[in-house]
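Question: I have long wanted to understand how a fold can be written as tokens. Here is the record:
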Amino acid sequence: MQLLDGKKVSEDIKNEIAAEVKKMKDNGEKVPHLAAVIVGNDGASLTYVGSKVKACERIGFESTLIKLPSTISETELLKKIEELNQDDNIDGFIVQLPLPEQIDDQKVLMAIDPSKDVDGFHPENFGKMALDMTTFIPATPFGILELLERYNVQTAGKHTVVIGRSHIVGRPMSILMGRKGFPGNSTVTLTHSHTKNISQITTQADIIITALGVPNYLKAEMVKDDAVIIDVGITRVPDETNEKGYKITGDVDFANVSKKASYITPVPGGVGPMTIAMLLKNTLLAREQRALRGQ
């Protein structure tokens, strides 16, 4: 069993991006600028956005954090997004989800300029991804592809089972794993809450990508020998022995499944760190594309 070490690979990617940024600075070019919009005071969201800002500082990006009250109206938030769309100083920005109930998430994502949508959630970017066109790939799926590529995990002709059909992970992964090229060229089965006899399907899988958010859902008996296991699940499970009062648990029963797997991602330290690294990579791509357009 080999661990797919997202922590190590994400550091490698950040170092590569930092070297690119240094070249930009040395050439007197504008460095990438990432903005993050957060609405309200959700603890997990604040932590996540904070780590994005720290990562920007580390690699030499400029970053802006925009904190807005949870009482903000949809109209006011859309106005703020339009300001960011028009701001030539900002290359890419994200709006941290979830948003308060008075705001329509979809309307907000639609309002983001696709050329600045470094999360890759805008329908234009999602459609380009589905058509194998150059675009921003959502950061978590992008991170999974990068892990598979850097560990040279073979995907061609393999049976990939994706558990979960969210627009952020499950659905894009099912498209990307079936695309031409590497990683890709696999035969994909997309499973979800209405799938019957899911264990019969997973035991036939060469690669399992689970993004369900149910702690320890995938058991050893659901996995065949030498399968590749990608665990996207991140759930806080109460744990009195931990000083934080909880521990982070994935979708996979790691202790038992790891004994059968050929490759497996740990939680934490697997897919999670890759998500931030690929958001930074998308921001670098956004900067390069804007420079080509003379912006």
Summary: The two ends are 47 Å apart (CA to CA).
